[in-house]
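Example 3.2
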Amino acid sequence: MAKTPSPFRPLSINVLTVSDTRGIAEDTSGEALINMLQDAGHTLGERAIVKDDVYAMRAVVSTWIADDCAHVVLITGGTGFYSRDSTPEAILPLLDKEVDGFGELFRQISYEEIGTSTIQSRALAGLANKTLIFCLPGSTGACKTAWNGIIQEQLDARHRPCNFVTMLLGPYQPPVHEV
């Protein structure tokens, strides 16, 4: 007997841009993530921009992962090798578990677009207090690559053989119809 497919289940997704130079008007990466998550049927919970500072990032992300309403956090920026790039150092201590394959798969997909420059990406993902966190490079192209190539499917309950939705929301409970 075939398993009944799961319906789409919208998630609340927060977007954090890490930048020493961008404000809302210049934040094309954050805006692209918001557009893509909303186009996929999810809702934007909160949006913030912080300087590339370990403690500023941790403060925002810690607040979000303590909030039961935040299912996913998308962070763009600060994953490179410049002296101010500190997103992995800020976020790794907050994680309960890393999604080891995310960074590897992102770099594999990104290789097709930017060649060996992809080795300078320290993209990562993990789970903290039942909140899924993705740390992405700051370029709009990299955010689109990550969303279209990996994240969108993993945040869709209809994707098989597995996705993160049940882990974030619990098992699907069909509505009960009264007679």
